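Continuing the series of single-chain predictions for the mutant panel. This is the parent chain; the variants come on the following pages.
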Amino acid sequence: EVAVSPMRWSLALGLAGAGRRGVSRCGSRGAFVQSATVWTAWHPTACAVPFSHRCSRSFQASAVTTSSGSFTQRPNANAKSGKSGGVGKKGTSHTGTGGGIRGFVEINKRIITSADADALLSVVATEWRGMNTVNVATAWHRLAKLAKINRSFKNKTKMTHDPRVQILERLALQFVEDFDCMNLTNVVWSLAVLEHGFGGTGGSKFLNRALERIVEAAKRGLSQKKGDYLVDSKNTPSAQSLSNLLWAFTTMRLTAHAGELADLIVEVTPFLMRGFDPGRGTHTQERESGAFVPQTISNQLWAFAVLKKHPGDLHFDLCGRLIAENVLNFKPQELTNIVWAFCVLNHFPGDEILVSFEVEIARRAVKGEFNAQNLSTLILALSSFPHDDPASRASLSLVMKALDTDKVLASVERFNFQDTANALFGAAQMGGFASFFFKKTWHHMCGFSNAAVQMETKEQLSGGLMIYNSFLLLSAVAPRVQLNLPAMPAWLLAGAAKRWSKQAENGTVSEFQRDVGNRLTGLGVAHATEVTTSDGNMSMDIFLPQLNISLECDGPSHFCVNANVGKVPLVRNATRAALLGARGVHAVSLPWDEWARAEDLGECDAMLADVVGRFRE
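Parent structure:
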């Protein structure tokens, strides 16, 4: 007999009396079917096949009771699957649908040809008893693809309470030990796309075990082929599988899972890069085949940036060279993600790679290939890197010229508030105040109303501060250009100025600053620590009033992190110097590593005396 809880008995009996859509007897023994099938019988969006046609003695014979009492039949987990991620080989025919669809192949065909999410879930509701691992993974994957098309279905409440989705949850959890690597990846990726978590503890159990199995499989791939990685989409995760999993765990904000996988990817990727195929990945089927394609690198670097986890110079530089050599094969979104990741992680790609990025970005910008968000992100990211080399200055000039072309200027009208802030600040750091792009973006910024922006979210607050920073730079560097631009909206100016000043006043004193201050006292040099300029707009680490200089104790965050290019200061150091200079203060940088070396040699006092002496002269 099939175990049914008292509450579901009452539910079933009540529904049976309402239009006979609730419960039907199975066979002569009168056993009632379990809750999952009862739900599919009465659910208004379920398959319209009469319920009595979906009951059979074979279901009663194969039913088992689970601890939850809500899913009582173990599907055919041991049935052989076909090609990973595709249609499985035809297995033993099931009898869940009397005279209906038979075999795994037929189930998969119905899943992949479902026109919408509701039709797909109806297939799950009627055929779950005969579904194997490939069917389940394909159902999740197809559901995610359909949800990307129809955003209205991707609703957490609706997903959680749809009993047909709960069936898929149970199947995924029961098959977690049986999925091959590609199918396991597809399920995790789909959960991230759908923004869906299992009810109760099932989701965490599934994701924890999925990560464990992937890591174990990858380790086997490394150990079975010394000095290389054995690629087998069934037994070891491919480059695309690892990349998609990292993207999924990062998107779901599972930082511990993503961090562990990121470490694994750093270990495995150098071997997988040998199989990089820039020509593949144009079509969805190629991207999902597991090949190492441009999207693989893009997803990896995007996730590293979101996690604020630098993968190491070797990994970043290998990726950078590979991208530069094949930059034509990267899609606009992929290229944007890559440049943004270099910026967020403060990794200077080097002049040669930076030039290749900028030349390609300029070419595509002229053609209008970047959407508004991509364009503003690229402008901000590129502006963060120094352009001291003649070649990089030339490539930056190409980008600035591209910004003044028709298709780019037309896209300014599509900028939201954050896009506008990114574009203005990026163009300001590039020194593009006289460009048509800066002027049009400034006019566009002036069109935002207080009611439309409201400055409540973290992004809006950040955007307001970036716009105010652009305003300060404009005033300091290009006051004549400012005369021909409309005034910054009063509501935005007042709110941003207040937050900016508060931020400047709330500086904290580091150990580095204390050490420098104590040594200045020993040298008899008057100074003040963490003070603001007279207008309250700029904070100074250590101000020497008699010399009108600010000693800026610059830690690692002021420089690019990769050691192979030497100590490369970020552009924000030059921005700070320009803003202080406009207020009559000379900014002098004290790099942390130079200070540490001087400390080891006992030369810190001599270093400070040299700085003070130069300005006294």
